[in-house]
Specification:
Number of domains: 3
CATH topology of the largest domain: Uridine Diphospho-n-acetylenolpyruvylglucosamine Reductase, domain 3
Largest sheet: 5 strands, antiparallel
Radius of gyration: 21 Å
Order of helices and strands: EEHEEEEEHHEEEEHEHHEEHEEHEEEHE
Strand order of the largest sheet: 6-7-12-10-11
CATH architecture of the largest domain: 2-Layer Sandwich
Length: 341
Amino acid sequence: MLDIKKNFSLKNFNTFGINVYAHYFVNVKSIEDIQKIFFKHPSIPKLFLGNGSNILFLKNYYQGMVIKIGIKGKKVIKENENQAVVQAFAGENWKEFVGWTIKKGFSGLENLSFIPGSVGAAPIQNIGAYGAEVKDTLLEVQVYETNNGKMRIFTREECQLEYRHSFFKHPRFKNKFLVLSVSFLLRKKYHKLNTYSIEIQEELKKMNIKKPTMYDLSKAILYIRNRKLPNPKKIGNAGSFFMNPIIGILDFKKLKSKYPTITGYSISTNQVKLSASSLIETIGWKGKKQGDVGVYEKQPIVLVNYGRASGMDIYSFSEKITQDIKNKLGLVLSREVHLIR
């Protein structure tokens, strides 16, 4: 039986720790639960919630039903001596799922170790870190079509994965598809690990490891993240608040000549992905604080809630940063977090 709660606090269900309330809240643990919700409550506005690690509520009350996706389970679908297909349901914790694949000896997700969030959010956001993205290993996504109650499979190509973007984020299809499970094609035999990140190279050097395994790589990422990123259980945050802008290589050279502290790396023969952290630091926002909102001093791409900030407080603070970057650098800094209005 579904346990639908009314006027429910979401303080413990968003990593910013904002005490916003939902008119209705329900934790679904099966596909049947989802079908019941849409059958019994077809007209109520609905918000699908994973681990709440990439959202910002702008109001103190959500006038609808928040559906916490609690469908769990992971398994090996098939494997041979070279590769394996694994499937995880949307409610699985991403960090734990990646750790499970590594323990199984399956390679391909190690660069995405310790990213907060749920498995269901991974293809929607095309999460990525240290030179890797979900699209590199994604095989298919199983979804529930909210308008007709049917199940559907999206291939990797159909997901249209780009930098922090996918088919599912398109305004026309927002909330039309609910991710149920995700399947990945991973490798079993040794292959060259992705250690192109300078941060990873330096960390492995500190660890005195010259020939890293995927276990070593994952551990190095853990050390880096623990050192740079705040623990949301202690300081409210949603990880990277902004996306790294992509500009032309000639524009980058002009920018770099004027602001030497700005960093970036080539992603094609004519494009450079800038470090949003370096942009924020260059214009003087690193460590700044206004009220209970601030820029994290160890990683400027992260905005933090030092206590009692509201969602609108955080949003207004981020607006000042983006406007300052536009005025001083002529760049548009987009948000990575999902705004709930």
